[in-house]
Write a structure and sequence with these properties.
The chain is of the alpha+beta class. The protein contains 9 helices and 8 strands. Strands 5-4-3-8-7-6 form a 6-stranded antiparallel β-sheet, sandwiched between helices. Strands 1-2 form a two-stranded antiparallel ribbon. Strand 3 and strand 4 form a beta hairpin. The longest helix has 19 residues. The protein is globular and about 60 Å long. The mean pLDDT is 88. Keywords: DNA-binding, Transcription, Transcription regulation. InterPro entries: GAF-like_dom_sf, HTH_MetabolicPath_Reg, Tscrpt_reg_IclR_C, Tscrpt_reg_IclR_N, WH-like_DNA-bd_sf, WH_DNA-bd_sf.
Length: 261
C-alpha cells in the first residue's frame, strides 16, 4: 500500500478511490515544455512525492511504454498520445459537430473549431477548414490559455459572477503580445461585455497575426457545452467586416446543433 496515498476526495466513497491511479496520472501531467526530461527527484518535487515513490511510478509507466529513460532522466513517449486519441475517437460531441464545422468552414472560408474548457485552458477537440500556418490554426488537442482566445473568453464570461470572481482573484494574466489584456479590471469589463452581447472577438492577444470569433454551443437544455469559433489571419479586413461575415454563420450553426446535443 502506498504510504503517500492521497486522502479520499469529497463526494467519492473511500472504497472507490484509487490513489495510485491519481498519482500515476499526476506524473504524466508533470511533464511540460519547461520539464521535458526529469529525474525521479524532480518529478517527485513537482507532484509532491518522495523520490522513491516518484521513481516507482516512473518505472511502472516505463514498463507500460508511456515513459522512456536513460537510467537517470525520464521522458514521455508518443504512446501518451493514445490517451487523447481515445477521447477524440470515443467522445460523442466531436463526431456530432464535424459536419457542422464543415458548414462553417464552407460558409466563411476560415478554420472552424469546437473547443471546450479544461481548467484555465481551452482545448480544441474538433476542427474543419483550410490548412494554414500554425500561427493561425491549432491541431486537435491543442491547449491554449483561455484568457487570450475568443472561445476561452466567451466560456469564462458565461460563468457565474461568483465563479468568475474566484477566477480573477486567483489567476495571473500572462502577457503574450502588446495587445494581451493584462489588467484584471479591464479583463472583468471585457468579459462583462462578452456576456452581454453573447459572442466574443479576440484579436492579436496570443499571436499578432491572429483573430478569433466565437459563439456559445448549448445543448437542448440550454447548458453550455463548448464554443464554436473560427480563427483567421488579421489581413486587411476590419474587425467589423470580419464579424459581419462570420458571426451569422456561427450563430445559425450553433442554433442548428442544439437539438442534437
Amino acid at each position: 500500500m502506498d504510504s503517500e496515498a492521497s486522502p479520499t476526495p469529497p463526494g467519492l466513497d473511500k472504497r472507490d478511490w484509487i490513489a495510485g491511479l491519481e498519482r500515476g496520472v499526476s506524473i504524466i501531467e508533470a511533464f511540460d515544455d519547461a520539464h521535458q526530461r526529469m529525474t525521479a527527484s524532480e518529478a517527485g518535487q513537482r507532484t509532491g512525492m518522495t523520490r522513491t515513490a516518484a521513481r516507482r511510478y516512473l518505472l511502472t509507466l516505463q514498463h507500460m511504454g508511456y515513459v522512456a529513460s536513460d537510467g537517470k532522466l525520464f521522458w514521455l513517449t508518443p504512446r501518451v498520445l493514445r490517451l487523447g486519441q481515445s477521447y477524440l475517437e470515443s467522445a460523442r460531441l466531436p463526431r456530432i459537430v464535424q459536419p457542422f464545422l464543415q458548414r462553417v468552414a464552407a460558409g466563411t472560408h476560415e478554420i472552424a473549431y469546437l473547443s471546450v474548457m479544461d481548467g484555465d485552458e481551452v482545448v480544441y477537440i474538433a476542427r474543419n477548414g483550410p490548412n494554414r500556418s500554425m500561427s493561425t490554426g491549432y491541431v486537435l488537442g491543442a491547449r491554449v490559455p483561455a484568457q487570450v482566445t475568443a472561445s476561452g473568453m466567451l466560456m469564462l464570461a458565461m460563468r457565474t459572477d461568483e465563479e468568475l470572481g474566484a477566477w480573477l482573484a486567483t489567476h495571473e494574466l500572462a502577457v503574450f503580445t502588446s495587445h494581451t489584456i493584462a489588467s484584471k479590471e479591464r479583463m472583468k469589463l471585457e468579459l462583462a461585455r462578452i456576456r452581454a452581447q453573447g459572442w466574443a472577438l479576440s484579436e492579436q492577444q496570443l499571436d499578432l497575426n491572429s483573430r478569433g470569433i466565437a459563439v456559445p454551443l448549448r445543448d437542448r437544455h440550454g447548458e453550455l457545452v463548448g464554443a464554436l469559433n473560427v480563427t483567421m489571419p488579421m489581413g486587411h479586413e476590419s474587425s467589423e467586416d470580419a464579424v459581419a461575415r462570420v458571426l451569422p454563420v456561427l450563430r445559425e450553426t450553433a442554433q442548428a446543433m442544439r437539438n442534437l446535443i
